[in-house]
């Protein structure tokens, strides 16, 4: 009987360990950003806005120029 009680106690301790591991202190609230982080974020946002404006200002409806790679290989039509 003593073995069974000790065995049950050991099993209870082993089963309780992982359960307690999940109940650790909750993560702390995020810290307030430092002035350097605020400046970096503001600069990053400004750069992103400039980039998006540049993309919007480019003319994306232009058709590409067709290039004839064999243009110099053909003879003149006027030589006939």
Helix content: 40-55%
- Give a count of the beta strands, DSSP E runs of length 2 or more: 0
- Mean pLDDT score: 80
The count of helical stretches stands at: 2
Class derived from helix and strand content: mainly alpha
Largest sheet: none
Shape: elongated
Q: What percent strand?
A: under 5%
Identify low-pLDDT runs: none
Radius of gyration in whole Å, from Cα? 37 Å
Q: What order do the helices and strands follow?
A: HH
Q: Termini distance?
A: 117 Å
Structure, explained:
The chain has helices at residues 2-21, 35-57. It has 80 residues and is mainly alpha-helical. The chain has a domain at 33-57. The longest helix is centred in the middle third of the chain and has 23 residues, at 35-57. The radius of gyration is 37 Å and the shape is elongated. The N and C termini lie far apart (117 Å). The model has no long low-confidence stretch (mean pLDDT 80).
Topology, element by element:
Blueprint: H1 2-21, H2 35-57
Highlighted features:
single chain; 80 residues; mainly alpha
